[in-house]
Amino acid sequence: MNELPLWAAILVALLLILAGLVTLIGSLGLLRLRNFYERMHAPTLGMTLGTFCVILAATLVASLLQGRPIFHEWLISLFLFMSAPVTAILLMQSAIRRRIAPIQRSEQVNSDSPG
């Protein structure tokens, strides 16, 4: 068995497209959000969900081509799923200790208004 069934190829393609879109949205959130604390969430969530979709697609392809369940990709993703949120938390704690103040809503309104 050297080729994927049509349903599997479509599902894998959709998962990879979804992974790309989620990662793009996370990257845009990094650019769009205003302060450090808000910026921490978008890339972390985008990376985690994007990685999940890619790993699910890789597991599906490997399992269908081998004719048996393949799960070792999930060990790799386990380290990514644990390290991304932990890294975000450590960066936020570092910012708190350095006393990086979040922008208040009134400061955002004043900085957006002309003059």
Order of helices and strands: HHHHH
Low-confidence stretches: none
Number of helices: 5
Helical fraction equals: over 70%
Mean pLDDT: 83
Strand content: under 5%
Main sheet record: none
Straight-line distance between termini: 68 Å
The helix-and-strand class reads mainly alpha
Number of strands: 0
Question: What is the 3D form?
Answer: elongated
Radius of gyration: 20 Å
Write the layout of secondary structure elements.
Blueprint: H1 6-32, H2 36-39, H3 41-66, H4 73-97, H5 105-112
3D structure, described in words:
The chain is mainly α. It is built from five helices and no strands. It has helices at 6-32, 36-39, 41-66, 73-97, 105-112. Helix 3 packs antiparallel against helix 4 (73-97). The longest helix has 27 residues, at 6-32.
What structural keywords apply?
single chain; 115 residues; mainly alpha; 5 helices
Please outline what is shown here.
By secondary structure, the chain is mainly α. It has five helices and no strands. The relative contact order is 0.13.
